[in-house]
Design a protein that fits this description.
Layout (H helix, E strand, L loop, with lengths): L23 E5 L5 E5 L5 E2 L23 E5 L24 E5 L13 H12 E4 L2 E4 L25 E2 L5 E3 L1 H41 L9 H38 L4 H50 L3 H87 L3 H12 L12
Antiparallel strand pairs: 1-2, 2-3, 4-5, 6-7, 8-9
Helix pairs in contact: 2-3, 2-4, 2-5, 3-5, 4-5
């Protein structure tokens, strides 16, 4: 942590020529700020100790002269049942779930004390969880998470985590689940087209058989009003065959073909591009996260080395020891700089990861809506054509109904008698 004195500017030179009390030594941080350490009690303070007895300023727990402090900013306070997400919107910088390293606000604190940042790190380690190289707080550790699209069950809110089996083994990533749904939708759409094709074949075969049956000579010799009704019935079969043939043709052009051609062969290639893009971003995120952890460990090692050398200085004063301390301070500061650089790169990659995950998942959601609406449109066209077919069939049957209602046995007998009263008896084929 970068220490802060009581005044706005800390002196870089000792202005008080009085000797320090026994056991006290004076040191300067890499930033030029002076502090005092008691080699016996390990007390440390910014205030110059006086020769009079006074209470210890603060016990020395760990020497930390690095100008940086590690803090975690976790904007997501809970894990959703199906995953975690960022509230980052497209075009905005990521302000959540970031592991950020920054200079703290200036406040008085001896350089060897236990800083709030260190206590904060300890608390985060007890309450955090890492998902896809992003740190999230555990459920119940903060306010309820804000969804990007509340009450809409949008993809962008629920597919950040990986799907696991009961044994905890990772099966697929959340994004891959979305891609699989798109591919499954494509397959189901193809199967629907095959179903319509089978219906077309049935309609064509039905039309063919109706047309053939309408040409049958059976009962062609029926006379009178009943004969007229019978002739109309046979004719209606031919007309009905034409209707079903037209119905099958329309099914092919207006339902089957659109279902087959919607999202052609390039669709799978486009999904692979999505997959590779998100996978590459995830690899970059994992790499940046590993760099941050490595840099954090290096900083801890440098700080520990500085602490050891500082303790050695209390035991043995020499130019070599002081030089070692200066060198250790430089390395500690450099390690802090490296950690800050790694965290900045991580935050940039994480911001890109969140932005692409949100925008791409919403694009897949849009594609799914388009697919369903497209299928709905053409299935409604199917039902419309079916209703039209029934309507045309009904119009063909109506003349048959009217003629059957007008069948009059007495009139048929009269017509028959008038035709046959001369005694001209026609033979009837009894071979049935």
């Amino acid at each position: 942590m970068k220490p802060a004195p009581e005044s706005s500017a800390a002196p870089t030179e000792e202005t008080d020529s009085r000797p320090l009390p026994p056991g006290w030594s004076s040191y300067i941080t890499p930033e030029g700020l002076r502090y005092y350490v008691n080699s016996s009690s390990k007390e440390t303070t910014w205030r110059r100790p006086s020769s009079s007895a006074e209470a210890p300023q603060r016990p020395l727990a760990r020497q930390n002269s690095s100008p940086y402090v590690q803090t975690f900013r976790c904007g997501l306070s809970s894990l959703q049942a199906n995953g975690c997400h960022s509230s980052t919107k497209k075009g905005q910088p990521a302000e959540v779930a970031n592991v950020s390293l920054r200079k703290p606000a200036m406040h008085k604190q001896p350089p060897g004390s236990v800083s709030p940042a260190k206590r904060q790190i300890k608390e985060v380690k007890e309450t955090k969880i890492t998902i896809n190289c992003v740190t999230f707080p555990l459920p119940g550790e903060g306010p309820e998470q804000q969804l990007l699209k509340p009450d809409e069950w949008s993809y962008c809110d629920y597919f950040w985590t990986d799907r696991k089996d009961p044994q905890g083994t990772t099966l697929v990533t959340g994004f891959e689940v979305l891609l699989q749904k798109q591919l499954k939708g494509k397959q189901l759409q193809k199967e629907m087209a095959e179903f319509i094709h089978e219906r077309i074949k049935i309609e064509e075969e039905y039309a063919k058989n109706l047309s053939k049956l309408s040409l049958s000579p059976l009962a062609a010799q029926e006379e009178g009003t009943l004969g007229e009704a019978w002739t109309q019935l046979k004719k209606s079969l031919h007309d009905e065959a034409e209707v079903h043939l037209k119905f099958s043709n329309k099914l092919h052009t207006e339902v089957e073909k659109p279902l087959l051609t919607f999202r052609g062969d390039n669709f799978k290639k486009d999904l692979k591009k999505y997959d590779h893009h998100i996978a590459d971003l995830r690899k970059q995120l994992a790499s940046r996260y590993a760099s941050v952890e490595k840099a954090r460990k290096a900083l801890a090692d440098r700080q520990k080395d500085l602490e050891v050398k500082t303790q050695q200085l209390e035991i043995k004063l020499s130019n070599k020891t002081e030089e070692d301390i200066k060198k250790a301070r430089r390395k500690s500061t450099q390690a802090g700089d490296d950690l800050m650089r790694c965290v900045d790169l991580y935050n940039q990659t994480q911001s890109k990861w969140f932005e692409e995950m949100v925008t791409t998942s919403m694009e897949l959601e849009k594609l799914e809506v388009e697919r369903i609406e497209w299928i709905q449109q053409h299935l409604r066209q199917y039902t419309t054509l079916r209703h039209e077919t029934d309507m045309f069939n009904q119009s063909m049957v109506e003349p048959v109904d009217q003629l059957l209602q007008n069948v009059d046995p007495a009139k048929d007998r009269e017509l028959w008698v008038k035709e046959n009263k001369t005694g001209d008896v026609r033979p009837v084929d009894m071979d049935i």
